[in-house]
Automatic annotation (TrEMBL):
Keywords: Heme, Iron, Membrane, Metal-binding, Monooxygenase, Oxidoreductase, Transmembrane, Transmembrane helix. The chain crosses the membrane at residues 12-32, 445-462. CDD domains: CYP58-like. Heme binds at C444. This is Cytochrome P450.
Length: 501
């Protein structure tokens, strides 16, 4: 009889089976899942669409939701069927530090579309090989060779800004400088973003436009193949973002092909960029990047990791310095005392020894955060103890760095820009909580380049120019959306030379 019903009504039966399966899954996730003892909203325990709603539909709001959940449920919250988030700064070291065996979560990192890069490597052995190769180009020693080029870009930035009697968009200006630096380092050619009117280089604008696409691709990976067929009216934003994303890819492919031809034609070129070295036929075959696809993945990841991050830190820092006369005067005074003739070039090593400048850079890093999303890691087969809790194998865990950087116990008045907090006798113990670059085996590979750029830009900007803020208010930097990087509401920071203010 039962078999007869099945044959007579196959669609009904299929629907009934699907419903039974989903009900069983819901009950399992709520009551019998290894994470069911952790608090959190039932909907988040049942389905990943809880997160998708905040990331895609509400747009970059998941970090704010995590903050709400911690105030409701306490320091450990189940934010997905298989995922926990911690609001406990001790958890950061346990998840990300040197001894950590936890690995990157492939279901998250896949959405960047750079699986072949150092950033996209999930397997620790593969990551080691790629990081070892890339370290040749981003070590402290490598930065000494790049110091001149970074200084030239800082000089160029200042000359562009000081020749203008109009307000300058610092959001785009700093990103133009960092984009120029990373393109020279990658291709041996500069994209010359600093020379574009109003700092509106097409590559830079396309990178910015494409950023929100990240969460859409993470939740709906198939949309990348379908988008061409979507009617324009249905998703205008989506079309804009995809168009920008494809432009970025096409530009990079063109540049990559040019580097390959150059490397083959001139293998003994003196100044070799990253791509020239990879493609040089006389170098040993590069095991880290055996074909064109991983090389492409690497440059796509470097251009994103290397331009927006430093640009954001500089924009946030510049706002805070200009917003507080005492800070601005103390910084300028230190720079003048140690760099009396600003026509002379200044060495990075001199800047690195300046305590107030260093404190300004650290405070800028703290309040700009780096990547604001929790960086998800998977617990290994033995399980782990995090913040005093036993965490079962295969659980995804993470903590957004904002929970450390804005913790009032570590950083009293956490939203205030106070370089002095880094200048107290006890301040060295604070360094371990400045986690913009993350820590451990997967910490930022470009950290030396980032510090070099930050020192140079802050020193040149504040030693050579007297600026005032136009059209901006502090709430714009405290209120951001989370698209892996922070995206601020309101306008972009504009400044004008003091004599024209
Ligand atoms: C203020 C500037 C910067 C900040 C705050 C920053 C922050 C970070 C963070 C938090 C990570 C870890 C990401 C994760 O675990 O998923 C990371 C990784 C990485 N960063 Fe940076 N970064 C900065 C600048 C740069 C620059 C200038 C470059 C190079 C051009 C760079 C290249 C990389 C690479 C290749 C990785 C991947 C490392 C790995 O996964 O093993 N970053 N960065």
């Amino acid at each position: 009889m039962h078999i007869l019903i099945t044959i007579d009504h196959p669609i009904d039966t299929a629907c009934a089976l699907v419903i039974i399966f989903w009900l069983a899954l819901v009950i399992q996730r709520l009551y019998f899942h290894p994470l069911s003892c952790f608090p959190g909203p039932p909907l988040a325990a049942i389905t990943g669409f809880y997160r998708t709603y905040f990331e895609v539909i509400k747009g970059g709001e998941f970090l704010r939701e995590i903050q709400n959940l911690h105030s409701l449920y306490g320091p450990v919250v189940r934010i997905g069927p298989n995922e926990l988030h911690f609001n406990d700064y001790s958890a950061h070291a346990e998840i990300y530090s040197v001894g950590s065996q936890l690995t990157k979560d492939p279901s998250f990192y896949r959405c960047f579309g750079v699986d072949g890069s150092a950033f996209g490597a999930v397997n620790p052995c593969v990551s080691k090989i790629r990081r070892a190769f890339m370290n040749n180009f981003f070590s402290r020693r490598a930065m000494l060779q790049l110091e001149d080029m970074i200084r030239q870009k800082a000089v160029h930035l200042v000359s562009r800004l000081s020749n203008s009697k109009q307000p300058n968009n610092m959001f785009l200006a700093f990103r133009s400088a960092t984009l120029d630096i990373i393109t020279v380092h990658m291709f041996g050619h500069c994209v010359d973003a600093l020379d574009h009117p109003d700092f509106c280089a097409p590559l830079l604008l396309d990178i910015q436009t494409a950023i929100p696409l990240l969460w859409t691709i993470k939740s709906f990976p198939w949309i990348a193949t379908l988008y061409l067929f979507l009617p324009k009216g249905v998703g205008l934003h989506l079309h804009e973002q995809f168009r920008a994303f494809l432009n970025v890819r096409q530009t990079l492919i063109r540049w990559l092909n040019r580097s390959q031809s150059e490397a083959e034609a001139h293998p003994f070129l003196h100044d070799q960029s990253i791509c020239h070295q990879i493609f040089n036929p006389f170098n040993k075959p590069c095991h880290a990047y055996p074909s064109m696809q991983p090389v492409f993945d690497e440059i796509l990841s470097l251009i994103q990791a290397g331009s927006d991050t430093v640009g954001n830190t500089c924009t946030v820092g510049t706002f805070h310095v200009l917003n507080n006369d005492a800070v601005r005067l103390a910084l300028v005074e230190e720079l003048k005392a140690n760099w009396p003739n600003d026509e002379d070039p200044i060495d990075l090593s001199v800047l690195q020894d300046l305590p107030y400048l260093t404190a300004v850079v650290k405070e800028s890093l703290r309040l700009s955060h780096g990547f604001v999303s929790p960086l998800p890691r998977i617990v290994g087969p033995m399980g782990a103890y995090i913040a005093g809790h036993y965490i079962p194998p295969k659980t995804t865990v993470g903590i957004s760095v904002t929970f450390v950087h804005l913790n009032p116990i570590l950083f009293p008045n956490p939203t205030q820009f106070m370089p002095e907090r880094w200048l107290q006798p006890s301040s060295t113990s604070l360094n371990k909580y400045l986690l913009s670059f993350s820590s451990g085996p997967r910490m930022c590979l470009g950290i030396s380049m980032a510090w070099a750029e930050l020192y140079m830009f802050f020193a040149y900007i504040f030693r050579k120019m007297d600026m005032r803020i136009v059209e901006f208010d502090i709430s714009d930097f405290n209120d951001f959306k989370d698209y892996f990087v922070p995206i601020y509401g309101g306008g972009q920071l504009h400044v004008i030379r003091a004599e024209y203010a």
